[in-house]
Amino acid sequence: MLSSFVLILKKKQKNDKTKNPVSYKFMSFFTSAISTLETLVIALGAGLAIWGVINLLEGYGNDNPGAKSQGMKQLMAGGGIALVGLVLVPLLSGLFS
């Protein structure tokens, strides 16, 4: 019973593709926009993390605890932003499908 219901739904989905191709073009645009957003967020996080590493090393070189603290904060924030780009941004593509 359940398998026949699933087959009916799959058949209906196939028929829907031929009826409204504009919506599928929009979804392909949305998917490509999500992948671009993912790349940008990861790049932003990586850039902030690299800047944090530079500040951290500068703080160790000059024995400056303020620069070390700022560098560690930037490193952790950049890693968090990159993690959001890797994990949460791809979940946006499943929002409208």
Which structural class best describes the helix and strand composition? mainly alpha
- List unreliable stretches of 5+ residues: 1-9
For the terminal residues, how far apart are their CA atoms? 25 Å
Give the overall shape, derived from the CA principal axes: rod-shaped
- Main beta sheet strand tally, sense and closure: none
Q: How many strands in all?
A: 0
Beta-strand share of residues: under 5%
H/I helix tally:
3
Percent helix? over 70%
- Listing every helix as H and every strand as E from the N terminus to the C terminus, the arrangement reads HHH
Which value, in Å, is the CA radius of gyration?
23 Å
Mean pLDDT: 80
Question: What order do the helices and strands come in, and which of them pair?
Answer:
Layout: H1 2-19, H2 21-62, H3 65-87
Helix pairs in contact: 2-3
List key phrases describing it:
97 residues, mainly alpha, 3 helices, rod-shaped, disordered N terminus
